[in-house]
Amino acid sequence: MDEHGALVKGNVRHPIVEDDVVIYAGATILGRITIGRGSTIGGNVWLTRSVPPGSTVSQAQARHEVFEGGAGI
Length: 73
What we know:
Helix content: under 10%
Mean pLDDT: 88
């Protein structure tokens, strides 16, 4: 951006997606980052940093625990 906050044309700002990368629906990839060869980016992930080749990026898994009779609460 210039001193007034306007985007400057000609500057690179799109991500680099290397070969054999799978990006699932809803993934958001922001900025000039690199997704390494053979990586998998899960659905609904917001990716703002580069990932090395062979990476798997997914959302945190929700924990579901059952407490019987209120035990553990």
